[in-house]
Model the fold of this input.
Amino acid sequence: MTTLRHIRRFTRRGLLHLALLAGSALFAAPFFWLVSTSAKAPEELYPPRWKIPVPENVLESPWMGLRDNERPLRPLKVSAADWRRQAPAIRAELTARLHALQAELPEFMRPHLGHPDWSEGLFVRLLRRAPDDFFRKSEAECAAWFAENTTPELARDVFDQVYRRFALADINFIGWDMSIEPSRPPIEIPWRVVDGDASIVPRPEGLLRPAQELHYSFAATDHFSVQAVLPLQMPLENLKRVRVSNHADLSWHRLWADLEFSGRKYRSVEAAYLQNNRWQDSAWQFASREDTDVMVKSWLIMKDDGPSGFDQPGQVRLTLHLNKSGPVMTTLGKWSYNYREVMRQVPLWRYVRNSLWLVLLNIAGQILGSSMVAFAFARLRWPGREFCFILVLATLMVPPQVTLVPVFLIFKQLGWYNTLKPLWVPAFFGSAFYIFLLRQFMKSIPTDLEDSAKIDGCSYWGIYCRIILPLIKPALATTAIFTFMSVWNDFMGPLIFITRQDLYPLSLGLFSLHAVYILMAKYELMMAASVLMTVPVILLFFAAQRHFIQGITLTGLKG
Done:
């Protein structure tokens, strides 16, 4: 019987722990999904998957490849048996069709006709408009439909998607007066390799955009450099930014830029990443006041690097350096890219500074104001004490929306509109909830300690500072944690009282960021910003968990 009781007890404990683990996993799932989404590229968001893709270790470019989410998936209305029966025949037929179109395709595409990812890309593209009932027909009839719909134009279009290459196209010079001066046509830009194992191959046609491809190998070196001397008609003092259109090869290697003119050299202090498989604009701008202004930044910073030997009137020399990223740096670079972009594009640290300032002032105010009022209600005896306490508690039943307009008018008359004062000054007057919490905790402290202090000649202020405050540390920690969470996540207050963007706390700053990114469909950046908003609260809770639980459990207990 004893053994049976032990088994039952361990079984109950095991089931209880499993239930707790299941509940924890259930409640943590949204946060894990948030974190995984924040580490993905835009092309990896659909179809939704928990796994964060690991980038390829690219040592040679160009190369052919597809992401896992770019490969064909079985349509919902197609049975698994039909899919297993038809898919191999379709792939074989598409490969044969590519060989049949060989004469109608550019010469540089022909060596890749047998690459399976090209036919896979065609499979995905045609699968979007393929009738589901075709998969119930014979293999020959189904595969024939895919082959008939594979045209030379579609084959070239899919090749442009599957063909991973690093290519350079237009170069634009942008002035401080917002004038734009384009350079020569992409094919005519005099790029030359000055360092590393690389070669330049012009592609005037065959792909969607004319450009010059850079074929490189990192087998023996870890970088290469290309250089071009370009005419510049605008005054050099007006030059603000240089923008280079480039096609990334999904290698996550780092691209740096140097610009030389008038005997000075300017070097980029931030790298652009070859993080996708499409055309992108990498812009480097000279360091200026705009780098610290409150605005969305679409450029990388370039600073003065000292004298240069290049001094040709009316010309500039642009040098691009591509540095290799190893497997570890590639993975870390990809997983942290969205966070770095958020912190680079918006003044996130200014938002964080404002939030921390508000948090510190509110915590200090609530601890001081609420504890002093709670001490008066718990330890002092004065006429009308209970009535005033009931009146304070009654304010908890008044919705904040009712007092919103009067409070706004009061602060506006005080001249506090568009300042941070309305967000922290009221904390020094206490809060009804925290006053009640601390009062109940103080009432659990034995009065003998207070009487002994009075006998020793201690004043009420000394009793408050030397006896009460040290004994209610768990309740004060609970107050600090609750205050931190409410102020850190407060959105309505800053939205009402602040219009200056340099005063935005993090909550309102991320809302303005959301308004910009939602139009650009940059959901991965919004997820990264949300993680940055959530992580401090989680870390604070785990760091102060013991004080938090102790403050809750001991509140209201009699000593």
Summary: The longest strand covers residues 167-175. Confidence is low (pLDDT under 50) at residues 555-559. The chain has three domains: 63-161, 167-325, 349-554. Residues 251 and 462 are 67 Å apart (CA to CA).
